[in-house]
Amino acid sequence: ALGMGWGMLPEMQCSAGLADGSLVALGDRPILMPLYWQRWNLDSPVLDGLSRVIAEEASAALPQTRGGF
């Protein structure tokens, strides 16, 4: 399909497409964004543990900034 589009993907999701040419990088530097995790405000040890693990793994895998662009 021909057309135009854009998007913002973590490098781990687009590296294969960039390497094989099916995706084209727009710009020459990454855009660092603050990341947030939201969940229901429930008293749940299971959700607390899940939230902790997701935040830890995202922090390790996804570059981010606390100050915006």
Number of domains: 1
Query: What's the total count of β strands?
Result: 0
- Specify the overall morphology: elongated
The structure class reads mainly alpha
Instruction: Characterize the biggest β-sheet.
Output: none
Helix content: 25-40%
Query: What is the CA-based Rg, rounded?
Result: 16 Å
Strand content: under 5%
Could you please describe the fold and organization of this structure?
The protein has 69 residues and is mainly α. It has one domain (11-61). Helices cover 39% and strands 0% of the residues. It contains two helices and no strands. The longest helix has 17 residues, at 45-61. The chain is elongated and about 50 Å long. The model has no long low-confidence stretch (mean pLDDT 84).
Keywords, separated by commas or semicolons:
69 residues; mainly alpha; single chain
In short, what is this structure?
This protein is an all-alpha fold.
Write the layout of secondary structure elements.
Blueprint: H1 11-20, H2 45-61
